[in-house]
């Protein structure tokens, strides 16, 4: 009976993805595919709100569009299916080989939906709001810390909506907007502060499962060669690292969806900036440089946070300073050199009952604040 239950539970995310895909197909059949400006201005319409929620899934990569979001989830579902069956083409085992992707996805998605139910009214201001943060923060981290199960998944989702989302909202609206700071600083600082509070609370809750930080990377049966092919695969996997997937198939889905969205309507993804190619190029360069520079750390530790510039410094620099090649290269180089070791240093100093991702997001905030002005000076822009 338990085996039957597990197979049904594992099929649940696929059913959700099919429903989302059918919803998108219905929208296409109606001939409605607005650019970002139209989408942001029509949040009082049900279809626009649904698209905004789905787009939140790809928000962490600065793509903000339903196609890369659906591509990410479809690729992740395929990666999990391949991992469960031990397929050789699965790539890096999704969710670090824990097998917890269904629970991680369920908790993250519940946190996202609950956040919109509680805080979706903030979109009426007409300003961009960080409604996505619960999807890529505490809910997933709690599943990785305490294991699967509805108690953990629901607790993570509720705490994500009650703590992480309002913390990021407050910092973005009362710090970043008034001081004209990159909003990513408010997003990730809110994640870090709220998650620290949540993990402190969890010490008093009967969470069950393990209560200490899991290893940074799972044990591997076959030691990687860490050669050129591994480097390219690692760069690709970094694109889906922020939602805790870390898998090439998930990243391919994300990037394919982003490319398709840009081809169909260049002013739709990446907040209508039409800078999606520049952002993706900078992200790929930052990850490549990071993996090359910190390859010895990858070998020694099994995992290293080379993904950090992808979801913070590079896209923030491009959107703030423009898509000139100097901005792309400077932000990628400085992000690859500075952000990963800073994240590792912070994470190593966290108590065992807190997930190491808190150090990663703190590094994003500190590095973005420090690097963007330098990039502006080097390139003649204004950060």
UniProtKB/TrEMBL annotation:
| Membrane-spanning intervals of the chain | 67-84, 96-121, 127-146, 153-175, 181-202, 249-269, 275-294, 301-319, 325-345, 357-378
Question: Which keywords appear in this protein's UniProt record, sorted alphabetically?
Answer: Membrane, Transmembrane, Transmembrane helix
Work out whether the entry's keyword set contains Membrane. yes
What's the protein name? Integral membrane protein
Q: Which organism is it from?
A: Pseudomonas farsensis
Taxonomic classification, please? Bacteria, Pseudomonadati, Pseudomonadota, Gammaproteobacteria, Pseudomonadales
């Amino acid at each position: 009976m338990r085996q039957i239950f597990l197979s049904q539970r594992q099929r649940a995310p696929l059913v959700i993805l099919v429903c989302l895909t059918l919803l998108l197909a219905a929208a296409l059949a109606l001939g409605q595919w607005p650019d970002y400006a139209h989408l942001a201005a029509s949040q009082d319409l049900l279809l626009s709100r649904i698209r905004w929620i789905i787009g939140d899934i790809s928000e962490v990569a600065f793509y903000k569009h339903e196609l890369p979001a659906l591509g990410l989830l479809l690729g992740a579902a395929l990666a999990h299916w391949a991992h469960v069956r031990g397929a050789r083409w699965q790539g890096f085992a999704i969710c670090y080989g824990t097998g917890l992707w269904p629970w991680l996805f369920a908790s993250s998605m519940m946190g996202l939906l609950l956040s919109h139910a509680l805080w979706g009214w903030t979109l009426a201001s007409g300003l961009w709001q960080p409604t996505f943060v619960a999807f890529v923060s505490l809910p997933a981290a709690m599943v990785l810390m305490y294991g699967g199960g509805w108690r953990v998944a629901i607790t993570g989702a509720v705490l994500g909506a009650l703590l992480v989302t309002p913390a990021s909202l407050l910092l973005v609206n009362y710090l970043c907007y008034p001081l004209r700071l990159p909003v990513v600083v408010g997003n990730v600082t809110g994640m870090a502060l709220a998650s620290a509070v949540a993990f402190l609370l969890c010490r008093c809750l009967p969470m069950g499962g393990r209560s200490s930080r899991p290893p940074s990377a799972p044990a591997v049966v076959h030691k990687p060669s860490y050669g050129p092919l591994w480097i390219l695969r690692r760069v690709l996997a970094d694109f889906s690292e922020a939602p805790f997937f870390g898998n090439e198939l998930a990243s391919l889905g994300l990037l394919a969806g982003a490319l398709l969205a840009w081809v169909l309507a260049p002013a739709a993804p990446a907040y209508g900036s039409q800078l999606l190619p520049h952002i993706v190029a900078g992200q790929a360069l930052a990850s490549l440089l990071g993996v090359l520079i910190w390859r010895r750390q990858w070998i020694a530790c099994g995992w290293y946070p080379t993904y950090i510039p992808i979801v913070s410094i590079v896209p923030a620099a491009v959107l703030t300073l423009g898509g000139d090649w100097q901005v792309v290269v400077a932000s990628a180089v400085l992000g690859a050199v500075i952000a990963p070791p800073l994240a590792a240093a912070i994470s190593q100093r966290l108590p065992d009952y807190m997930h190491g991702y808190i150090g990663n997001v703190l590094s994003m905030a500190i590095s973005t604040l420090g690097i963007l002005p330098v990039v502006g000076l080097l390139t003649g822009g204004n950060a």
